[in-house]
Amino acid sequence: MRYRAGGLLLLAVAAWLLPYQLNRYSIHVANVTILFALLAIGLGLAMGVAGQINLAQVAFFGVGAYATAILSTRAGLGFWTAAALAMVAAAAVGVLVGLPALRMQSHYLGIVTLGLALAFTNWVTNTQLAGGAEGISAIPVPTLPGLDLSDEYLFYYVELVVFAAALAFGLFVVHTPLGRRMRAMRDDALAAGAVGVEVPMLRLIAFLLASLYGGVAGVLYAGLIQFVAPETFSIANMFLLLAMVIIGGRQSLVGCVVGAVTLALIRELLVDYPTYAQVAYGSVVVLTVVFAPTGLAGLPRRLTASLRRRGLARRPAGASAPTMRPFQPYEPEPEPEPVDRPPLLHVDGVSMRFRGLTALRTVSLTVGAGEIRGIVGPNGSGKTTLFNVISGLYRPAAGRVALADRDVTGARPYRLAHAGIARTFQNLRLFGALTVRDNVLVALDTSRLRGSWRYAIWPVGVWRHDRELNARADDVLARFGLDDFAHTLPGALPYGIQRRVEIARAMARQPALLLLDEPAAGLNGDEVRQLGEIVRSIRDSGVTVVLIEHNMGLVMSLCERVTVLAAGVVIAEGTPAQVARTPQVIEAYLGDSAMAGDLPAQVPAEAAR
Amino acid sequence: MIRRRRYLAAVTCTAAAAVVAAACSAPGSDKSSSAGGSGPIKIAVVDAQSGQLSSLGAWELKGARLAVGEWNKAGGINGRQIQLDVFDDQGDPTVGTTLARKIDSEGYVAMIGTAESAVTIAMAPTLRQAEIPNITSGQSPGLVAVNSPFLFLNGPTSTTYDETLAKYIVDKKGIKNIALITNNGSFGKGEHDAFSKALASRSVTPVADQVVTSDQKDFSAALTTIRQKRPQLIFLGAEEVESGLIVKQARDLGITAPFAGAAPQGTPVFLDTAGAANVEGTIVSSPYLGNDASDAARKFAAAYKAAYGQDAELHGAKAYDGTQILLTALKTSNAATGKALADAIRSTKYTGLLGNFAYDDTGVGVFATAIGTITGGKLVAESA
Amino acid sequence: MQVFLQTIIGGVSLGAIYALVALGFSLVYRTMGLVNFAHGNVVMVGAYLASTFYLSVRLPFGLAMLIAIVVTGLVGVVIERVLRPLEHKDFDLMLIGTIGFGVVLEAVAVLIWGATGRAVRSPVPARPLDIFGVRVRTYDLLVLAVAALATVGLVLFLQRTKRGAAMQAVAMDHEAATALGIHVGRSNAMAFVIGAGLAALAGGLVGPLLYVSPSMGGTLGIKGFAGAVLGGFGSIPGAIVGGIAIGVLDSFAAGHFQGYSELVTFVVFTVIIMVRPTGVFGERTVNRA
After folding, report:
1. C277 at the A interface (CB within 8 A)?
2. CA within 20 to 30 Å of A488's CA: A47, A354, B46, B53, which one?
3. How many domains does chain C divide into?
């Protein structure tokens, strides 16, 4: 950490002293490079951190530059006033461009944002207000007391200060709850919604951030070049920017900056051979994407990992082999008699159809508070579909879902998370690029996105909130015995531990209702036993649990009541013993009636409670 | 622990010292002295060598190289060879401004280019500050509006082109039923405004005024609207390829009216794209009516063909004239630079392929164009 | 009325080219799950090859097109082979990899053929037809006919042949397809080659219509892609409908809004896609997080 601080200081000094080494041409190149670096940070935030394809970044750049130009030349405003208004304009455009992201993602979003960027250039080429194809010249030089900013050397310092602040802010966003949520959304938007991330608003915020960086770069551009024309904001420059971000490593903001600087320098070196330069960029992008997807920023980690594999690099001192600690049970809450339990979850006549296939046919069930309910049935009977309806991933074709008197039919997953529903997934949906600790932190964060204004005005409050979350995360990790794995990525963990991480994440929000989708799948006998203890403890702490399972031993020993689904219809409901003897259940699921005798009756452990 | 603290302290002290030392003096560098007494005279050619308008850049370069080659063969200027270096502005004004600073810091005495008015306008302030004369082949009146004593045009402005054209069409031929189709790029807009003004001064209102984009490929809507108005003549304000496409599609739509235009209509690319049969009868206002127009043109075209194996055309001729003027000024001013060179250019009188150059204060040197008509696939001059 | 009809005709003729481009996009997406942003540049390569064989080597137009399709198919093989490690893994990265390829293709075209383009004369010398005052170019009819044939051929291939079915199986579940003995790499390569072939077809046909230059791939690619998305990405009839729709939209926007046509076209496109993100024929892809 100390080395890092020292290195940073040296870098800052080097940057401060740079102009003394450069002639007029090189300082201009440096100034333009800083602008690209700002744009790259914005693009990195939207694409690399939040996972939103944003091919309109160059248009945000243009809005900032043109707004400054128009307001300072046509409307006669001072440069800084025009700049402030230009930032507002860029932000507004950013939110507008972000609206399609609410309806589509990936390549659809790509073509829409690309089209909007072209639309911007087209508009600007035609309007007299924007000077048409010849642009706007003679933009007034920005003035600062005592400094003549028409001198590019002094302008460099202004840019450097702005850049440092922008980078610091960007890094602050990435490493605090907002950035963590964006990364979670990027890794798995579905799971993010399930742990309470307000995905639609977050997408807009991502575009807003990108447009703010674009706007800043645009304002500085107008002040530096004092001339704006449509060709600067072309698709060719957009692709250059994209190359910078990819080659640098889109998920790391520092990587984006490195990519921007590297490509800008290469462009200068190859300025005499522009066509060969194009071949070079394109090839490097392809090579990076195939061989080094994490870009230049990911190289150090890959290098150390590869050295470690070859036994050439030491592991950090004091690390013994990490193990999962035992689960620490929750404090039990006083529990009412089964008869007195108020219904917590009420599913009423839910039907679900997928283009002609009826997955659920008027399914109704009621789960009392504090109950452990099992849902069993053959594959394809609609169990996960039912979960998806309850947790808001699907809107049912008919029927109602109510959570403790509140109708939550068809509500979005994040609203249900706020209402107190948590779930795990059949195919494990952990956030792959986030550490175990970060996975839990995302779930712990119950703050609403509309409080994000604090980032701009009151970052200290954000920092405090983050510290508090981290403290609570320690508690969650300790309870589930995951302390040793806090800084590991889920992909590197054994399957059983990943399953526990997912349960820990779901429980982090202290939900009222926990849905577990095949939690025992792939676990060995001992792990299943541990799972049973965990679920019981969870229920004892006051959480209602509904689980889908195929492991009949676990179901019988754990669940108080069992609902059996087959072909989208509830064919039986009752205690495990009752259900095991029901003929339809035996026929559809459990097998020949002769085997009914093999099933355990209610296990003594359950009866003794 | 202590070692680390000492390390950090050392770093901080060094850093602080460096910053303090630096803050005492402002940064800046001495200009690398340009064009000293000996060594080659460096001239920069800046154009789009890549991208949509790169053909203009390629032609310009050939014309400039031809001129420089002739002078170098004849011994250069005061025994010094002329060195021509190419820079690609990619049609992007930002790159242009960077290049302006680059040629300043690397000691170039003058610049030829660019063919695009927007980029030239972007570069003008820097070149003015650096006192580097620039002979451009742009023709937009916006260039004149820049009002830089270091900016010169190697051809007439759109105003001249279109005034001559309007004079011929309206005054001489008596055609009053005219439709306009122009694009919204800087050249097209300039042409649109100049021609409209020329018509307005003759109290002629166009029957149609269609604007298309520079990227447009299908002109059915615009052309059909024009066809409905039955004009006697259609004015084209777009670059070579786009005009060619417009003409081709117009003929396919059954429009038989002749076309008229300025510089692009005099090029072989326009002819090839549209098809020779379709452009028959097109009226062209251009100072360079083709490689057969005069003895000088023939000589130029022959040299061009010998050097490059291609036919010469207007843009190459403009660059050739511009470079010749620059080299003449360098000779008469004894390889001067900066203001002295600019003044020398201004006072140079040169009879070139495009006409008689005599620069005025606005940087324009030629004030007349000629009228030609495309007949039998060739541009034939009209008698005045 | 005449302006209206002529505008439609103009839009349809250019739209047929966009439709062919869209067809290539949709086919590659449907069979490989890959969005190939280099497709427009492949069209450009096809256009250059076809025009080179037609003009310089003086082969008959049809033969020149055929050779261009074959050679461009090889380019497709190369691209697929290089990007194979990414297939079915990171979608966004693959997207960006194809963008990189597009940049390389354009630069290489400049190196080989120069930055200036070339005009290609029409292989159909007949005069345009005049139907009730509306003019229709005979070459346009040829383009439409070829586009229709290509569509029919493609649909038959995908639905009636084993290889075609295998290709679609790979797109739906490549692991299951492997389990069934389908060589995924080869199937993908074939899909890509067919996509490239369609691109070359579009490029060869567009040459006499417009002008062949290294930067022509840009607009054709973007509009073609928009057409594919509009019609439902991955749907073959959708590509045709979407491509022609974009062409007609473009034509009307140019007629009514003149210089602002691009702005109007893309804003309308955005609105349509937001209202119906899956396009006219496509599957639902909107996630509900």
Report:
1. yes
2. A47
3. 1
Q: How far apart are CA C218 and CA B44, in angstroms?
A: 30
Number of structural domains found in chain B: 2
Cis status, amide bond into A582, omega within 30 of 0: no
Residue numbers of the domain that contains A390: 338-607
Tell me the chain C residues in contact with residue A242 when contact means C-beta distances shorter than 8 Å: 96, 99
> How close are the terminal C-alpha atoms of chain C, in Å?
48
pLDDT at B9: 61
- CB contact, 8 Å: A80 with chain B? no
Model confidence over C139-198: pLDDT tens digits? 888 888 988 898 898 888 888 888 888 877 777 777 777 888 878 778 888 888 888 999
How far separated are the first and last CA of chain A, in Å rounded? 52
pLDDT at C45 over 90: yes
- The DSSP element (H or E) to which A55 belongs, if any, is none
Number of domains into which chain A is organized: 2
> Per the domain annotation, does B273 fall within a domain?
yes
Structure confidence by residue, pLDDT tens digits, A573-585: 999 888 888 888 8
Name the residue among A19, A25, A137 with its Cβ closest to that of B121. A137
CATH code, domain with B273: 3.40.50.2300
CA nearest A286 in C: which residue?
C97
Choose the final residue of a domain: A172, A205, A234.
A234
DSSP of B59-128, one letter per residue? HHHHHHHHHHHHHHHTT-BTTBPEEEEEEE-TT-HHHHHHHHHHHHHTT--EEEE-S-HHHHHHHHHHHH
Q: What ipTM was estimated for this complex?
A: 0.87
Q: Is the pLDDT of residue B14 over 80?
A: no
Which residues on B lie below 8 Å from C13 (Cβ)? 218
Q: Does the distance separating the beta carbons of C233 and A107 come in below 8 Å?
A: yes
**B253 contact A CB<8A:** no
User: Does the CB of A2 have a partner CB in chain B at under 8 Å?
Assistant: yes
Report how far residue A332's alpha carbon sits from residue A168's, in angstroms, rounded to the nearest whole number.
45
Tell me, yes or no, whether B211 and B282 share the same domain. yes
Q: Flag if A25 and B102 touch (Cβ within 8 Å).
A: yes
- Domain extent, residue B341, equals 41-156+294-367
Residues of chain A with pLDDT under 70: 1-2, 312-320, 334-340, 591-609
E strands present in A267-383: 343-354, 357-368, 372-376
Does some domain include residue A51? yes
pLDDT value of position C287: 33
Residue A574 lies in a domain: yes
Mutate to test the interface with A, among C104, C267, C284 (most CBs of A within 10 A): C104
The distance of Cα C130 from the centroid of its chain, to the nearest Å, equals 29
Q: What is the pLDDT of residues C238-267, one digit of tens each?
A: 889 999 999 999 998 988 888 888 899 999
Q: Do C119 and B58 touch (CB under 8 A)?
A: no
Three-state SS annotation for A9-23: HHHHHHHHHHHHHCC
Residues B280 and B315 in one domain: no
Return the CATH number at A524. 3.40.50.300
Do B120 and B218 sit in the same domain of this protein? no
Neighbours of chain B (3+ CB pairs under 8 A): A, C
* Distance in angstroms (rounded) separating the CA atoms of residues A183 and C288: 18
Structure tokens at B49: 């060598």
Specify if A469 maps to a domain. Answer: yes
Q: Establish if C241 belongs to a structural domain.
A: no
Q: Is C245 within the bounds of a domain?
A: no
Question: Which pLDDT score is estimated for C162?
Answer: 85
Q: Which of A29, A154, A35 is nearest to B28 (CA)?
A: A154
In a domain, C110, yes or no: yes
Question: What does the pLDDT read at residue B11?
Answer: 60
Whether B382 maps to a domain, the answer reads no
Place of tokens 């590019």: A152
CB atoms within 10 A of CB C98: 24
